[in-house]
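Retry 2 of 3 after timeout on previous attempt. Resubmitting C-alpha cells to design endpoint.
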C-alpha cells in the first residue's frame, strides 16, 4: 500500500516514520522549499515522549531536550508561587516516561534524521497541494507546479490551514477568541539565575497570562504571553512585534516578566483563532491528522501531542486493516475523535482559568488558586492526558 502524506510537520513526519517502520511505502509532500519547523517551544508530556521511545528514537530526543523538575503557578503582580505538579523522576514513576521541554525545530530534526535513515528520499519539498482526486481505489494529489502523485491512501497532515481539509469539507470558519499571543526565545545566560531553573512557569493574572520554560538542554528559554485584546487578528507565526509593545501589554507585571521581555530579541505576535473540532475526518481513502482536523488553543500543551498520538494510532490501524484501507481510516477516527475533542474543549476552559478576574489582588488570588489548583483538580485535568498510550489503546471495535 502506498500512503501519501501532505505536510512534513511534526504530525506528518511522525506518521511517515511509524508507517515506514511497519513496511509501508510512504511519500511525504511539503510545500516549503526546505525542512524546518516554525515556532519555538513544545512541552512534551509522557503521552508524547513514550511514542518516541516506541519508535526507537527516545534517546535522540532526550539528548536535545530539557528535563524539567516541575511546573509552578506564579501570581502576575507579586510573584507568589504555588506548586502545580512535580516532573523529572516523578513523571517516570507515574507514567513510565519523562516530561520534556523542547525547541520544536530540535524535535523536528530528530524525526527528519530518523526518516531519512530508514527511507531516504521519501520527503518531497516544493510540493504545494492544489487539489485532490479520488477514483476507485486510488487517490491523486495535484500540485500547484503541475505535477501529481498517486497512492492508495492520502493523509492530510497539512496543518491548521489544511488544503486537504478544504478540498474535503470546504473552507473553515475560524472565530477570533479575543486573545493574541506573544512568543520569543531568550538565551538563558542573559537571564537571572532563578529564571534559568529547569521548571515550567505559568504566570496567571486578570485578562492575560505568561508561560515560560527552558528548551534545548536549558540553553534557551521559551516565552509565550497571552493577552486579551481585539486589535490584532492576524493568524501568523511570523509577524514581528516590538519589545515595547510586548512590555506594554504586561505593564505592571512582576519584574521577572519584564526582564524576560527585555531580552527577547524579536518578539512575534499572532491572533488565537478558535475552530470547533470536525465531526468527521474521513472521505473514502482520505483522512486528516493533527491540526488539520482538531486545531486547539495552546492552554493544555497538547497540540503537538495529539498529532503524535494520531500518527501512532493511524499506523496501527492501517497495519491491522491493511487489506481494508477505508475500514482502517474509519477505525482511526473512531479511536481518536472523542479524546481530541475533549482536549480542544479542556484547553479552552484552561484559558478562562488562567485569566480569572479574581487574580487581580493577592487575597483573591490565594483563594482562587487554592480552589482551582487543588491536587484533586490537577489530577483530574492532567492524569488522563499523560497516562494515555497510543501504542496500546484498543483499535478494534468493542
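Retry 2 succeeded. Sequence:
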Amino acid at each position: 500500500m502506498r500512503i501519501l502524506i501532505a505536510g512534513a510537520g511534526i504530525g506528518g513526519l511522525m506518521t511517515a516514520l511509524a508507517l515506514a517502520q511497519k513496511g509501508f511505502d510512504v511519500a511525504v509532500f511539503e510545500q516549503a522549499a526546505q525542512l524546518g519547523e516554525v515556532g519555538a517551544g513544545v512541552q512534551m508530556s509522557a503521552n508524547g515522549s513514550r511514542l518516541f521511545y516506541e519508535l526507537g528514537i527516545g534517546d535522540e530526543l532526550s539528548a536535545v531536550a530539557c528535563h524539567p523538575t516541575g511546573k509552578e503557578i506564579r501570581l502576575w503582580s507579586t510573584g507568589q508561587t504555588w506548586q502545580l505538579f512535580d516532573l523529572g523522576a516523578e513523571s517516570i514513576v507515574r507514567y513510565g516516561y519523562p516530561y520534556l521541554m523542547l525547541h520544536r525545530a530540535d524535535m523536528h530534526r530528530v524525526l527528519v534524521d530518523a526518516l531519512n535513515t530508514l527511507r531516504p528520499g521519501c520527503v518531497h519539498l516544493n510540493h504545494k497541494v492544489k487539489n485532490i482526486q479520488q477514483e476507485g481505489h486510488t487517490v491523486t494529489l495535484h500540485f500547484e507546479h503541475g505535477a501529481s502523485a498517486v497512492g492508495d491512501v492520502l493523509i492530510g497532515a497539512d496543518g491548521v490551514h489544511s488544503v486537504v481539509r478544504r478540498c474535503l469539507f470546504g473552507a473553515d470558519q475560524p472565530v477570533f477568541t479575543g486573545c493574541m499571543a506573544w512568543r520569543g526565545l531568550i538565551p538563558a545566560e542573559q537571564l537571572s539565575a532563578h529564571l534559568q531553573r529547569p521548571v515550567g512557569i505559568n504566570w496567571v493574572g486578570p485578562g492575560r497570562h505568561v508561560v515560560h520554560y527552558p528548551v534545548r538542554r536549558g540553553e534557551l528559554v521559551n516565552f509565550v504571553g497571552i493577552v486579551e485584546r481585539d486589535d490584532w487578528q492576524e493568524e501568523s507565526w511570523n509577524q514581528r512585534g516590538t519589545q515595547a509593545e510586548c512590555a506594554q501589554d504586561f505593564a505592571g507585571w512582576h519584574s521577572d516578566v519584564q526582564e524576560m521581555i527585555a531580552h527577547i530579541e524579536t518578539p512575534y505576535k499572532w491572533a488565537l483563532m478558535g475552530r470547533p473540532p470536525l465531526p468527521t475526518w474521513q472521505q473514502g481513502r482520505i483522512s486528516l491528522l493533527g491540526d488539520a482536523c482538531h486545531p486547539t488553543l495552546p492552554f493544555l500543551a497538547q497540540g503537538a501531542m495529539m498529532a503524535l498520538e494520531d500518527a501512532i494510532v493511524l499506523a496501527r490501524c492501517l497495519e491491522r486493516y491493511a487489506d481494508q484501507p477505508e475500514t482502517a481510516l474509519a477505525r482511526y477516527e473512531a479511536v481518536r475523535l472523542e479524546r481530541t475533542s475533549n482536549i480542544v474543549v479542556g484547553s479552552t476552559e484552561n484559558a478562562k482559568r488562567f485569566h480569572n478576574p479574581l487574580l487581580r489582588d493577592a487575597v483573591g488570588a490565594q483563594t482562587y488558586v487554592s480552589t482551582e489548583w487543588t491536587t484533586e483538580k490537577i489530577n483530574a485535568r492532567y492524569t488522563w492526558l499523560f497516562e494515555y498510550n497510543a501504542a496500546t489503546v484498543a483499535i478494534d471495535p468493542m
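Attempt log closed. The chain has a mean pLDDT of 94.
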